[in-house]
Amino acid sequence: MKLNALILLTTAAVVSGCSTSSDLDLSKFVDDPCRLFTGNELNSEDEFKTPELKDNSQGPSCFWDPVAMTRPAYIITFSTKKTFDALKEKAGKGKTFRETEVAGYPAFVSNVGDGQGTCDTTISASDGAAVEVRITTNFRAEPEYPIVCELSEKLAGRVVGKLKA
Questions:
Q1: CA pair distance 125, 164, nearest whole angstrom
Q2: Inter-residue contact 75 to 119 (CB < 8 Å)
Q3: Cα gap 37→95, rounded to integer Å
Q4: CB atoms within 10 A of CB 28
Q5: Cα 93 to Cα 142: distance, rounded to the nearest angstrom
Q6: From 28, 58, 99, 122, which residue has the greatest number of CB atoms within 10 Å?
Q7: How far apart are CA 62 and CA 48, in angstroms?
Q8: SS3 track for 55-115
């Protein structure tokens, strides 16, 4: 049931559209990416701790940690300190790497491993910046585990929708 709710939630909100340049503006949320979503908007079947705003080596990020440790966690990072191209070059060395588009924006899906358990979808934004959307679950028994890259890519579409609104 949890997986169905997550897939329905993410599929229904995937943004379609086309962009010919990376004009995705992060300024509305760059001070606090935690304002992008509530835990309920991420996954209505799970309960989350208070989101944590952090400033890491890439830039500001928000971590939505589930109350139940077996459930997926969500991290959205606005990479204002490392460029999309630099992130792409590094990710291309991993075991899982695929270039794609998210709502018309250049993007890539990556994971250092086999693409299960943890996966990032990184979207090109304005001025060389990027948005990294990560979903992680470390429990193989969870239904999200084998399809975490697909879910990350869908959530990335929702992030683009929030940034464009």
A1: 11
A2: no
A3: 30
A4: 13
A5: 27
A6: 122
A7: 13
A8: ECCCCEEEEECECCCCCCEEEEEEECCCCHHHHHHHHCCCCEEEEEEECCEEEEEEECCCC
Alpha-carbon distances, residue 90 vs 7, 32, 154 (angstroms):
29, 26, 22
pLDDT at 22: 55
Q: In what order do the strands lie in the sheet with 73-79?
A: 52-55, 60-64, 73-79, 130-136, 118-124, 105-111, 96-102
Q: Which residues pair with 62 in a beta bridge?
A: 53, 76
Nearest to 164 by CA among 105, 81, 77: 105
For residue 142, what are the β-bridge partners?
none
pTM to 2 decimals?
A: 0.85
